[in-house]
Design goal:
- The chain is an alpha/beta fold.
- The chain has 2 domains: 114 residues, Rossmann fold (3-Layer(aba) Sandwich); 127 residues, Rossmann fold (3-Layer(aba) Sandwich), CATH 3.40.50.
- The protein has 11 helices and 11 strands.
- Strands 3-8-7-4-5-6 form a 6-stranded mixed β-sheet.
- Strand 1, helix 1 and strand 2 form a beta-alpha-beta unit.
- Helix 3 packs parallel to helix 4.
- One of its GO terms (molecular function) is uroporphyrinogen-III synthase activity.
- Belongs to the uroporphyrinogen-III synthase family.
- Its EC number is 4.2.1.75.
- Catalyzes cyclization of the linear tetrapyrrole, hydroxymethylbilane, to the macrocyclic uroporphyrinogen III.
- Keywords: Lyase, Porphyrin biosynthesis.
Length: 249
């Protein structure tokens, strides 16, 4: 069995190397590349509008990475006396390193629902919230915090650029390489990947063992037609590696 890793570089290559090192055959095929956001030049102005005890939320590692790089390039600093919150351990660690302040993140589940359950976000009426994210994605955090009467804004610090892939030769190659398992780390990537597959190959594809980070993505996969789905509980490489090591032979 060979595992197809579809997350963006460099994470896909890092996970493939980890799996190959322990004897699990894996190959990388990113579906998109990540670039600096078109409107990142608004970040400093948005930060300056925040007051002490306002909130900065990072929804992904890339959101932190591009924000931090931009602030450094402009000689700007992360604001003090903020509530810093992140989705997931990797994002929280990156944000804490960048801002040099405590960062809260949900334990166990690494998704928007778990983040919204944090006590820090229970009473944020009239507080300003700046969400660092990529282009597109879920609106749940924005909608929920707005409903709690917070003043919420986005800064798209990075953008996802889908790769133009010719799936017909790719599928033939994957079948020759005995791909029987797939790692897909977001609903958007799952939909994009499924849409690439030629109709005649969908039955084979749906029968591959699909590994996804959350129940939400698992439900989406089931709706699309995937038959063998495992929920890892995280999109972080270390969590994926540990789970695959125990569940792929």
């Amino acid at each position: 069995m060979t595992v197809l890793i579809t997350r963006p570089a460099p994470e896909c290559d890092q996970l493939v190397a980890q799996l190959n090192q322990v004897g699990i055959s894996a190959i990388a095929q990113p579906l998109l590349e990540v670039k600096q956001g078109k409107y990142i030049n608004r970040l400093i102005e948005q930060i300056q509008q925040l007051q002490p005890d306002d909130y900065i939320i990072a929804v992904s590692y890339h959101a932190v990475r591009f924000a931090a790089d931009y602030l450094i390039s402009q000689g700007a600093e992360w604001p003090k006396n903020m509530h810093y919150i992140a989705v997931g351990d990797k994002t929280a660690a990156a944000l804490a390193k960048a801002c040099q302040q405590p960062v809260s993140s949900p334990e166990g589940r690494h998704d928007s629902e778990a983040l919204l359950a944090l006590p820090e976000l229970a009473n944020i009426r009239q507080r300003k919230v700046l969400i660092l994210r990529g282009n597109g994605g879920r609106e749940l955090i924005y909608q929920a915090l707005t409903a709690r009467h917070a003043q919420v804004s986005y800064c798209e610090t990075y953008q996802r650029c889908w790769l133009a892939l010719d799936a017909t030769p790719l599928v033939q190659q994957w079948q020759q390489q005995h791909i029987q398992a797939l790692v897909v780390t977001s609903s958007e990537q799952l939909i994009y990947l499924t849409g690439l597959i030629p109709t005649k190959s969908l039955t084979w594809f749906y029968n591959c063992h699909l590994f996804v980070p959350s129940q939400r993505v698992a439900d989406q996969a089931s709706t699309l037609g995937y038959r063998h789905i495992s929920t890892v509980g995280s999109a972080a490489n270390q969590a994926l590696f540990t789970f695959l090591k125990s569940n792929v032979s």
